[in-house]
């Protein structure tokens, strides 16, 4: 497994408060597993103090067939991809 730390904005669509689709890095991603809530995780992000962030971990596939595992968190105004795993 290869981990890549990233801090990029993402658009996430939710159904019943669970992520189902995402737009990230110029691609549409379809979530293909049951997302895991990361409510108690402590992450740091650029420009924000260390605090518990509300987020999710899930696997998703894009239109070209790439599959990644994502850690995403909700910032003040939008969603951010914190890590990706291949």
Automatic annotation (TrEMBL):
It comes from the Bacteria. This is Nucleotidyltransferase.
């Amino acid at each position: 497994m290869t981990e890549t730390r990233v801090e990029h904005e993402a658009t996430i669509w939710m159904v019943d408060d669970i992520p189902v689709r995402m737009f990230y890095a110029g691609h549409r991603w379809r979530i293909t597993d049951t997302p895991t809530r990361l409510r108690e995780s402590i992450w740091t992000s650029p420009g924000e103090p260390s605090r518990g962030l509300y987020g999710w971990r899930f696997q998703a596939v894009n239109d070209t067939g790439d599959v990644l595992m994502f850690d995403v968190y909700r910032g003040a105004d939008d969603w951010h991809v914190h890590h990706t795993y291949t």
